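README, section 4: Worked example with a bound small molecule

Sections 1 through 3 covered apo chains. Here we extend the same pipeline to holo records, where the ligand is supplied as SMILES alongside the sequence. The molecule in this example is pyridoxal-5'-phosphate. Nothing else about the input changes; the structure line simply encodes the ligand pose together with the chain.
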Amino acid sequence: MTSIPFDFAPLLPPGLPPPAAKWTGTAKYHFIGGNNDADQIPVDGLVAAATAVLTREGRTLANYGLASGPQGYRPLREFVAAKLKRDAAIACTIDDIMITSGSLQGLDIVNGVLLARGDTVLIEQETYQGSLTRLARLGVKALGIPLDDGGMRMDALAAALDDLKRKNIRPKYIYTIPTVQNPTGTIMSEARRRELLKLAQAHGVPIFEDDCYADLIWDGRRPPALYAMSEHGGVIHIGSFSKSIAPALRVGYIVAGWDMLSRMLPLKTDGGTGALEQMVLAEFCVERFTDHVPKLTRALRRKLEIMMESLAEHFGTAAEFDDPKGGVFLWVKLPDVVDTLRLNQAALAAGVAINPGPEWSTDKAYGKSRMRLCFASPTHDAIRQGVATLAEVCRREFGVPTRIANVEQRTGVQSR
Ligand SMILES: Cc1ncc(COP(=O)(O)O)c(C=O)c1O
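The generated complex, written as structure tokens:
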């Protein structure tokens, strides 16, 4: 009897995302994703925290939700509430917090409660790819609002809100990354936050505040969160331990009033975020978070400086960028002739991975000659060598930069 392999294809429902490519390892020069600095993972502290908490409370693992209920491990929510009060001026209690499996699950849950196919949301024109792909998959229109060096532009937001009102469209939310914006690295001032809250209230539109980079600010100072500043509610706040401790732990949180949290909890269908991760984080963070973060940001700042120096050395004036206020990314503008989607393909063949701008923007033409580079995970040498290799590839493909390390290059542009 011949055995014919079972074919799942006819059973798949329409609308699934395209199949994933098989993972073939990371590029030699890995400037993509929001990864962290391996040397800054507080391994010893996490080991000690794991031993202490498991010895003391390991028996609670017998229950889904430990002894803390569906909103997440109580000591972790206590830590988050205290941290948000101290750093972001948010006066919430542990009842306003739900622990999630990364802030990505926070995005899914908030979207799940608020969005339906055909809805419209307002979003920063350059923004997190994971947010854009989610909205596209849900069939939601993402209207991009341009940014300047202070974040989302309020004149453009006001115009978009007025325009939608004329069309009788009430957007479901205004999504913003106000504190170290991804990918631009800007921080929205307190004054602009006030303007944003005023506009949102006037138009009856909630704000979705994604604050996962707020711990990674070079001078450690941040404006209050939009959630804290709002006098009438209407803000949902999400955060994460991915950037301040480690992304692979997959722990984030949502802060919202019970009116919305009570609608969100039924959408958290995973039986609870990993208990070990929550327990170890709480145990570690209570004692060590405030010492750990300045060490991490110092290391990240040094890597950023190396990346900016390398770009200046190898791309000269062909690479334009602002010095970001914190975070793990540099958002770079290359000459108009460069198509970063094509540059990425050629660079990958040379071992360099970059995030092409069009994937991080609602305006693909604006993103065409821009790219996002993550400087947190590569070593100092990998940053230097990777940027040098990228410049070589860019010159070969597009004829720029014409000068590298003050030496004029013969351009050998390949026409396509
Ligand atoms: C703006 C923003 N939101 C959410 C996430 C998701 O992070 P995580 O699920 O690791 O908390 C990221 C990751 O890079 C991000 O940049």
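What to look for in the output: Residues 34, 102-104, 128, 130, 177, 182, 210, 212, 240, 242, 247, 252 surround pyridoxal-5'-phosphate (CB under 6 Å). The first strand starts at residue 29 and ends at 30.

Section 5 describes how to batch many such records.
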